[in-house]
Amino acid sequence: MSDRYRLADRIVERIEELGEISETPGMLTRVCFSPEHRRAADLILGWMRDAGMAARMDEIGNAVGRYEGAQPGLPCLMLGSHYDTVRDAGKWDGPLGVITAIECVADLARRGLRLPLAIEVVGFADEEGVRFSSTLLGSSAIAGTFDKRLLDAKGRDGLTMREAVLAFGLEPDAIGRAARKRCGIHAYIELHIEQGPVLEEKDLPVGVVTAISGASRFRIELDGRAGHAGTVPMTLRRDALAGAADCIAAVERRCCGVAGLVGTVGQITAEPGATNVIPGRVSFSVDLRASEDQIRENTIARVLEDLREIAARRNLRLAIAKTHECGTVQCAVWLREQIAAAIKAGGHSVTELPSGAGHDGMAMADIADIGMIFVRCRDGVSHHPDEHTETADVEAAALTLLHFIENFKPHTEPRI
Ligand code: HGY
Ligand code: MN
Ligand code: MN
Asked: Cα–Cα distance between 76 and 242 in angstroms, integer?
């Protein structure tokens, strides 16, 4: 291994290796409870064991590694991120946080270092929520907030989450046992690519995250009337896809021009899906986020009002289902201060920035104070195969995380 990058060389090598595990050759897609999930988990659990951790898969498919402190059984500093991906994803979103944390523990183990606390590294099984539209499944299970009703959600392949979990070899009714207690966790820290352009603009390799923007997701269904594309006059149509087009434009219109507010329709299906048939049914996703909860809530109300007006005007039946909601989550000031000290120790100036992207810390905040370290990524690109982080930035990030871990001062005894 080159001495230039003590930690980054192996991290980059593993990013590439994990990035090859996909359901589709030539593009990266890895969803929960899939054969790719299992292969990725086996790889990560092996890396955790090589780093001197006891490693296991928990009841929802998270990969959990534990490196004991000076005495066994001490409360832990929990590190982690997710190892599922979006469709046609980049290799860094999620895995960088898991693999860097493992490499930091391996470095402690190489030096025979035992801290006055345990270190746990968690690879979360499903943060993106691609397969079942809900999100943060792995971290909400650990936080004890997993909603069992989600087990009835159906994926594109027609399997419910319950069936997928069973087929994966886990017991859906045992997911509750993945829950951890606040008293065993000093704090949760996640290292993640920024997925935005700020660090690049400031020419900084790392930054301190202040807060994670709240998000709401909906599944919208419009029912009209299928018909012959050649014979039904325009004035007599109940075209569900034309109605959806109006709705999608309304989402965009409501979210433009407000700082920190974004709205996206990322998924849509139209049935029956033939060129010469007027679409009778359309289903699409809506993802609304804002740095402030009140702005997001006001926007939700306006958007749903617009959808109702469009459906009424076009004589379409409208069904609205909320599939996810999480308020804006603040990173703890005491953790931001210790992250800033670690960044300074690496010789970098400190900048603080919010996260427009969602992260597992949003769920983990229910059982621990959270902190996040952002890492510069090229052009701020993410959720795209062009996602990339330079090796020098990986090294800066890994050394920052390692310094944070070695100098971590628990805030108070973990709260019960
Ligand atoms: O959607 C998000 O912000 C995250 O990538 N799950
Ligand atoms: Mn993502
Ligand atoms: Mn992510």
From this structure: 53
Q: Going by C-beta distance under 8 Å and a sequence separation of 6 or more, which residues neighbour residue 24?
A: none
- Please state, in angstroms and rounded to a whole number, the distance separating the CA atoms of residues 232 and 217: 35
Strand, coil or helix: 408: coil
C-alpha dihedral over 78, 127, 322, 308, to 10 degrees? 130
Contact 410, 117 (CB under 8 A): yes
User: What is the atom index within ligand 1 of the atom nearest the CA of 82?
Assistant: 6
Ligand 1 and 358: CB distance under 6 A:
yes
Tell me if 127 CB under 6 Å of ligand 1.
Answer: yes
Q: Would you say 218 and 321 are in contact if contact means Cβ atoms under 8 Å apart?
A: yes
What's the gap in Å between 131 CA and the centre of ligand 2?
A: 13
- The per-residue pLDDT for 344 is 98
How far from each other are the two terminal CA atoms of the chain, in whole angstroms? 43
Q: Which residues make up the CATH 3.30.70.360 domain(s) of the chain?
A: 214-326
Q: Which CATH architecture has domain 3-213+328-406?
A: 3-Layer(aba) Sandwich (3.40)
- Ligand 1 centroid to 112 CA: how many Å? 37
| Substitution site in 383, 384, 387 for ligand 1 pocket (most atoms within 8 Å of beta carbon) | 383
* Average pLDDT taken over every residue of the chain: 96
Determine the pLDDT at residue 133. 83
What would the pLDDT profile of 108-119 be if each residue is shown by its tens digit? 999 999 999 999
The listed CATH number (3.40.50.150, 3.30.70.360, 3.10.290.10, 3.20.20.150) that belongs to domain 214-326: 3.30.70.360
pLDDT at residue 259 in the model? 87
Pick the residue whose CA is nearest to atom 4 on ligand 1: 358
Gap from CA of 223 to ligand 3 centroid (Å): 34
How would you classify the pairing of strands 214-223 and 317-326?
A: antiparallel
Tell me: pLDDT of 1 over 50.
Answer: no
pLDDT-based confidence at residue 12 (cuts at 50, 70, 90) = very high
Residue 206 and residue 193 in contact, taking contact as beta carbons nearer than 8 Å: no
Cβ atoms of 40 and 62 within 8 Å: the answer is no
Q: What is the DSSP string of 327-345?
A: --EEPPHHHHHHHHHHHHH
Cα angle 376, 382, 383; round to 5: 155
Distance, CA of 408 to CA of 335 (rounded, Å):
9
- Specify which residues 187 forms β-bridges with: 77
Which positions ≥6 away from 157 have C-beta within 8 Å? none
